[in-house]
Amino acid sequence: MIKELLDTRIRPTVMEDGGDIAFVSFDPDTGVLQLSLIGACATCPSSVVTLKHGVENMMKFYIPEITEVEQILTAEQDLSNKEFEKISKTLDKDE
């Protein structure tokens, strides 16, 4: 049901903005659904709002067992964020 909802209701909207969304995991004991935002959506400043208010609300509405939706970064996204933080700290020191 989760993957079907992602494919039919959520993914088409996310793809219109040049991104994609992928299922990572679901823990039925905690109700936590983990998803990964890909492409333009991964780096979009509104991705947190999209994930928490749009995706999470819809998933909870259709699948009450879901208690929370978390974004999981891909290895590339995590590395990119770490490098950005290093550069940002270097620039802050130069000011």
TrEMBL record:
GO terms for molecular function: iron ion binding; iron-sulfur cluster binding. Pfam families: NifU (PF01106). GO terms for cellular component: mitochondrion. GO terms for biological process: iron-sulfur cluster assembly. InterPro entries: FSCA_dom_sf (IPR034904), NIF_FeS_clus_asmbl_NifU_C (IPR001075). It comes from the Eukaryota. Residues 2-70 form the NIF system FeS cluster assembly NifU C-terminal domain. Belongs to the NifU family. This is NIF system FeS cluster assembly NifU C-terminal domain-containing protein. It comes from Oikopleura dioica. The lineage of its organism: Eukaryota, Metazoa, Chordata, Tunicata, Appendicularia.
